[in-house]
Design a protein that fits this description.
heterodimer; A: 193 residues; alpha/beta; 4-stranded parallel sheet; globular; B: 460 residues; 5-stranded parallel sheet; 15 helices; 19 strands; binds iron/sulfur cluster
Chain lengths: 193, 460
């Protein structure tokens, strides 16, 4: 996994609540046996119409907005445990998702793919939406070490929680498999009990 | 020290607790299927790690399988490839696979309990969020992502932060025609789709104590729809009777030993939960959902609520419904009785009982998809198939089918489908499809009436 310390980027607003993983990546795209290419079908049914023409109302098709940060409504990533959702978001180029609430499994899946879920208060989230809509070219800075997110050039700043172990993993680019394999002796001792 | 059911099972599987960090939890059983495992096998390969405990992994093919002509080659080339890859991976790593056509094949959350793989006091995982189903036996069972599938392959363990515990108590007696599905749809409508996030939920009280194992599975299955990672019900005589004698169940002395242990699992009398909810069985009635998340449900006959919320309005627009409207007598086009929520024998018995001697409405397409080969065989043996066919219903072969519409079983755009599955998300049953979640009884009756109807006239 790639190490992730800080990110400065513009942000894309998607103020829809309860975005489930079926919207992030519909089931009909889950037939692949590798992790590549999911970004092309991210939010497929919102992004394209029936005839595969880009849906101009949808924010990813709106040239005014760009960036590696997605700002989304509350309860992001609910529903299916499909990690394909994290692969699709990462594959599209997102590094950070900001919301006021994340579903459990999605949060874990995201972190396992170096995609950082940043949970902020509903108030802060609404201010972000407002600011980004007012001026789509403003930039956000996310600092993993300081556990902070801010809009550059404003006093809009918030801190976020992250599990200390996961923080270390993210900053150093480690992942859980390496750690668990290093623990096999303890696991075998447990089995012998 | 007093403990909850969850704490007892968790503590018994704790390998190590990091200071100020996650725990290493040992996993007894790992279930896999074709959709969320290929990338995990690839991960092992890329890192040159061998699969640690292949004997504790069981595989089935379910998500992406056809429900017609299962004896013939799979037509869709991508599905075919994914299924072949599962077969190859299982073969290579020495994993037991109950693949397409096998007498034990079925939806992972139907076939595993049926075979006795699921047992009280276990830790179980699967790359599928509805793994919560298995909590019905008093096990800690939850869905994981593909990275975690690889972790379990590599170490038979997971790094986890201990969730908080909540308890939902429902006392009293359910009215006639009120099924376990109505209970869980009611609970989610009351507490919302993220009330359980960060929690493991125990269901307690008269209603669950009196429920069959099938019913308990329906309830625990949908725990994830209120955000909880898993649901649990204390094992009791009903549980033990269900498990005993199944192919994977312990036998002889081992059975007695297990039984003694299982009886110690229920939550201690004074145990404290981080959060509690209480409901009364008499407030629960047959339910139907009107929106695009499982919390958007009402009693049949009640009006869809009014709300200023933009996401709510978007949802109703998708559904072609309006606030204040009642769904009673709303015409429907499709009925799907299936999925890991409601595709067990009991569900088909309820449905058959309602349709017996009646005819399906001509304009309704009704799919009955058993959860496993064993359920399929039972439907035939018990004569239910004859009842269904006489009523104009089509029985298909087992699989996830229209629950997630990964195969050909898709509901067309704009069509209303009364479904016994667990998710009414936009496009879940096909692009533009409109899903109305309900019990198998409501679904069967709706197929007959051709519209959403009350169950009263069908209760004898
Ligand atoms: S039946 Fe539906 S919810 Fe259940 S495992 Fe299959 S796809 Fe998932």
């Amino acid at each position: 996994m790639e190490a992730f310390k800080t990110l400065t980027s513009r942000a894309i607003p998607l103020p829809v609540e309860h975005i489930d993983t079926d919207q992030i990546i519909p089931a009909r795209f889950l037939k692949a046996t590798d992790k590549q290419g999911f970004g092309d079908n991210l939010f497929r049914d919102w992004r394209y119409d029936k005839n595969n023409q880009p849906n101009t109302d949808f924010v990813l098709n709106n040239g005014a907005f760009s960036g590696q940060i997605l700002v989304a409504g509350t309860n992001f990533g609910c529903g299916s445990s499909r990690e394909h959702a994290a692969w699709a978001l990462a594959g599209y180029g997102f590094k950070v998702i900001v919301s006021s609430f994340f579903a459990d499994i999605f949060k874990g899946n995201a972190l396992n793919n170096g995609l950082l879920p940043v949970q902020v208060s509903e108030d802060f989230l609404q201010s972000l939406f407002k600011q980004i809509h007012k001026n789509p070219s403003i930039e956000l800075c996310v600092d993993v070490q300081a556990q902070s997110i801010e809009i550059i050039g404003t006093d809009l700043r918030a801190e976020f929680d992250i599990d200390p172990y996961k923080k270390t993993c993210l900053i150093n680019g480690y992942d859980d498999i390496d750690y668990l394999v290093s623990k096999r002796a303890a696991i075998m001792a447990f089995e012998a009990k | 020290m007093v403990k909850t059911l969850f704490d007892k099972v968790w503590d018994a599987h704790l390998v190590e607790q990091m200071d100020n960090g996650p725990s290493i939890l040992y996993i007894d059983k790992h279930l896999i299927h074709e959709v969320t495992s290929p990338q995990a096998f690839q991960e092992l390969e890329d890192r040159g790690i061998e699969l640690f405990r292949p004997d504790q992994v069981v595989a089935t093919a379910d998500h992406n399988t056809p429900t017609l002509d299962q004896d013939k080659p799979v037509k869709d080339p991508l599905s075919k490839k994914q299924l072949q890859q599962l077969t190859d991976n299982c073969h290579k790593h020495g994993i037991t696979l109950y693949g397409l056509g096998h007498e034990y094949n079925g939806i992972v959350h139907v076939m595993a309990p049926e075979l006795g793989i699921t047992q009280p006091g276990m830790t179980m995982v699967c790359g599928d969020s509805h793994t919560s189903t298995h909590g019905a036996f008093g096990s800690i069972a939850f869905g994981i992502g593909t990275s975690q599938v690889a972790q379990v392959f590599a170490s038979q363990s997971l790094l986890l932060t201990k969730p908080k515990t909540m308890r939902i108590t429902v006392n009293g007696t359910l009215g006639k025609g009120v099924l376990p599905k109505d209970v869980i749809l009611y609970i989610i409508a009351q507490i919302g789709t993220n009330a359980g996030t960060g929690y493991f939920c125990e269901y307690a009280g008269d209603v669950f104590a009196q429920m069959s194992m099938e019913g308990r599975m329906t309830v625990c299955n949908m725990s994830i729809e209120m955000g909880a990672r898993g649901g649990m019900i204390a094992p009791d005589q009903t549980t033990f009777e269900y498990v005993q004698g199944r192919p994977y169940a312990p036998k002889g002395e081992a059975w007695e030993e297990k039984l003694t242990h299982w009886k110690t699992l229920p939550t201690d009398a004074d145990a404290i939960f981080d959060k509690e909810y209480f409901f009364d069985a008499k407030d629960i009635a047959p339910m139907v959902t009107y929106g695009t998340n499982p919390g958007m449900g009402v009693k049949i006959g009640a009006n869809i609520p009014e709300s200023e919320d933009a996401s709510f309005a978007k949802s109703l627009r998708y559904m072609g419904l309006t606030p204040g409207q009642s769904l009673l007598n709303h015409p429907i086009d499709y009925v799907f009785i299936g999925s890991c929520t409601n595709s067990r024998i009991e569900d088909f018995r309820v449905a058959a009982n309602a349709v017996k001697g009646r005819q399906k409405a001509a304009h309704v397409v009704a799919w009955l998809v058993p959860g496993s080969k064993q359920v399929e065989a039972q439907i035939e043996q018990e004569g239910l198939k004859t009842i269904f066919e006489a009523a104009g219903f089509k029985l298909r072969q087992p699989g996830c089918s229209a629950c997630l519409a990964m195969n050909e079983d898709k509901v067309p755009e704009g069509a209303y489908c009364v479904s016994t599955s667990n998710r009414n998300f936009e496009g879940r049953q096909g692009q533009g499809a409109r899903t109305l979640l309900a019990s198998p009884l409501v679904a069967a009756i709706s197929a007959i009436e051709g519209k959403i109807s009350t169950v009263d006239a069908y209760l004898n």
